[in-house]
């Protein structure tokens, strides 16, 4: 997801599958051409919600082909992979600033804030999806909730912790609309968000 902030700043959240020359790369084939078409050659921040291949893979192409001011991730390598190693090497080679973010952090921009609602800081979480970064973007009267692949335990914790603060106009449905656990937990989370529009990021044939 490309977030175009007031003042001309651009933030990219995840970049789809990729990272392997032999297979389809969503960044190379879709995301990068879209950005170039919009005359965007620089990204003020790239946020990797978690290190599963369908979120991290395309990031490598973005880092290699765009000027990126900083990358943000949860710092949790719950599943070591060749793509994760390549991601870390690319950051080092390109000398890109890397920040670890989690619950309670906030990224301020011109007139608004991106709040980080998940994962919990300083807590060992072995499930990559539960560790997924969840963001609430707030600008004036507009709010959008980006849920990554957050699942049951994370959704329950955020509902209990944040309650009405989750209220948003738009919600990016967690885990591509797939099963994320208890129906009660999911209903409570969606009710707390009160969103008017829901977006599911999923393959056409899935």
Give a nutshell description of this structure.
This protein has 206 residues and is an alpha/beta fold. Helices cover 28% and strands 24% of the residues.
Low-confidence runs of at least 5 consecutive residues: none
Structural class computed from helices and strand pairing: alpha/beta
Based on CA atoms alone, the radius of gyration comes out at: 16 Å
- The helix count comes to 6
Sketch the major β-sheet: 6 strands, mixed
- As a percent range, the share of strand residues is 15-25%
Euclidean distance between termini CA atoms? 19 Å
**Mean pLDDT across all amino acids:** 93
Read across the widest sheet, the strand sequence of neighbours is: 8-9-10-11-12-13
Shape: globular
The portion of residues assigned to helices is: 25-40%
Order of helices and strands: EEHEEHHEEHEEEEEHEHE
How many extended strands? 13
Structural commentary:
This protein has 206 residues and is α/β, with parallel strands linked by helices. It is built from six helices and 13 strands. The protein has helices at 26-37, 53-56, 59-65, 82-94, 152-162, 183-193; strands at 2-4, 10-13, 42-43, 45-47, 67-68, 70-73, 97-100, 106-109, 112-118, 134-139, 142-146, 170-172, 197-199. The strands form three sheets. A six-stranded mixed beta sheet has the order 8-9-10-11-12-13. It has a five-stranded mixed beta sheet with strand order 1-2-4-6-7, with no helix packed on it. Strand 8 (106-109) and strand 9 form a beta hairpin. Helix 1 packs across helix 3. The radius of gyration is 16 Å and the shape is globular.
């Amino acid at each position: 997801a490309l977030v175009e902030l007031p003042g001309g700043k651009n933030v990219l959240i995840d970049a789809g599958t990729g990272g392997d020359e032999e297979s389809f790369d969503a960044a190379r084939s879709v995301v990068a051409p879209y950005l170039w078409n919009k005359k965007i050659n620089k990204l003020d921040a790239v946020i990797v919600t978690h290190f599963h291949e369908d979120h991290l893979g395309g990031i490598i192409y973005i880092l290699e082909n765009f000027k990126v001011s900083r990358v943000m991730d949860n710092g949790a390598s719950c599943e070591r992979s060749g793509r994760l190693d390549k991601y870390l090497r690319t950051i080092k080679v390109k000398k890109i600033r890397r920040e670890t973010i989690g619950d309670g952090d906030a990224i301020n921009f011109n007139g608004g804030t991106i709040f980080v609602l998940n994962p919990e800081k300083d807590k060992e979480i072995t499930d990559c999806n539960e560790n997924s970064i969840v963001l609430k973007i707030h600008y004036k009267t507009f709010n959008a909730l980006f849920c990554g692949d957050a699942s049951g335990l994370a959704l329950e914790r955020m509902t209990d912790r944040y309650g009405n603060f989750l209220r948003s106009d738009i919600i990016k449905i967690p885990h591509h609309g797939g099963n994320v656990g208890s129906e009660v937990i999911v209903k409570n989370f969606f009710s707390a968000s009160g969103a008017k529009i829901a977006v599911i990021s999923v393959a056409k044939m899935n």
